[in-house]
Specification:
Keywords: DNA-binding, Repressor, Transcription, Transcription regulation. InterPro entries: LacI/GalR-like_sensor, Peripla_BP_I. It contains eight helices and twelve strands. By secondary structure, the protein is α/β, with parallel strands linked by helices. It has two domains: 117 residues, 3-Layer(aba) Sandwich (Rossmann fold); 130 residues, Rossmann fold. The strands form three sheets. Strands 7-6-8-9-10-12 form a six-stranded mixed beta sheet, sandwiched between helices. α1 packs across α8 and α6 crosses α7. The longest helix has 17 residues.
Length: 266
């Protein structure tokens, strides 16, 4: 398995290992550091070891490595970060309706200036979450405006800068939807640095449930990804591909779970 670093990678790895153990399979783990070049090197090394298949959390902007695996007929499943293609098995969380629900929750609390901290622009996952944000606004009768959207670059530092930009602009948001766990760290930091009371001065909701999300004050309202189910399904898809290389590729999206806490102000 080729894995990039992310806030819940340990949990996902454990889920995959449990699923593999149930099927009598062994897992070889490699960290790509979220780098396309490192990912290519890792895949070459795994291929040299004659692995039966690859579970890949693709690096941002990666197409060449995936194209090569598909072209060579290597049993492959993309995990977590799904790509906009139909020639490879994939499993991850549902994004569009989940983020739409977060926006509608905030709108139901009478927020009309709902900002969005987006992730890397060349990743299908974040494009889907941005679409969910716009869909939620539309279904709530709120007009989308670019002034309420800032890219957090999928990092805590990028999200802190994006939060500062939004809060210093007009119209200043009364609520924020944050597109990933890593970026939520930066949003929390910047809000505290500015003396903004989360849940009172600014409502915040996010996507992904890091361990600390339920322990900070106020605890974070979020959509929690079904990590155990993703790990289990990834292994099942890979074994099915190894058994039947000609089967039609599947894209499986698993619904996250809404966890209501106090950061949204209700």
């Amino acid at each position: 398995m080729a894995m990039h670093a992310n806030p819940y990678s340990g949990e996902l790895i454990r889920a995959i290992r449990r699923a593999a153990r149930r099927h009598g399979c062994e897992i070889t783990l490699a960290d790509t550091g979220d780098s396309v070049s490192e990912e290519a090197a890792v895949i070459r090394a795994l291929r040299a070891d004659r692995v039966d298949g690859v579970l890949l959390v693709p690096a941002a902007g990666d197409e060449a490595v995936i194209n090569g695996l598909v072209r060579m007929g290597v049993p492959t499943v993309l995990v977590d970060r799904m790509a906009g293609r139909n020639d490879v098995d994939q499993v991850g969380s549902e994004n569009i309706q989940a983020v739409c629900a977060l926006v509608r929750h905030l709108a139901g609390l009478r927020h009309r200036k709902i900002g969005f901290i987006s992730g890397e622009e060349d990743m299908a996952t974040y494009e889907e979450r941005a679409l969910g944000y716009r869909l939620g606004l539309g279904r709530s009768g709120i007009r989308w405006t670019s002034q309420l959207v800032a890219c957090g670059q999928s990092t805590p530092g990028g999200a802190a800068a994006a939060t500062a930009k939004l809060l210093d602009s007009w119209p200043s948001p009364t609520a924020l939807v944050v597109a990933s766990e890593a970026m939520m760290i930066g949003v929390q930091y910047e809000a505290h640095r500015l003396g903004i009371r989360i849940g009172r001065d600014l409502a915040i909701v996010g996507y992904g449930d890091m361990e600390w999300a339920g322990q900070v004050t106020p605890a974070v309202t979020t959509m929690a990804q079904p990590i155990e189910e993703i790990g289990r399904k990834a292994v099942e898809l890979l074994l099915a591909r190894i058994t039947d290389p000609e089967r039609r590729p599947e894209s499986v999206r698993l619904a996250p779970r809404f966890i209501h806490r106090r950061s949204c102000g209700c």
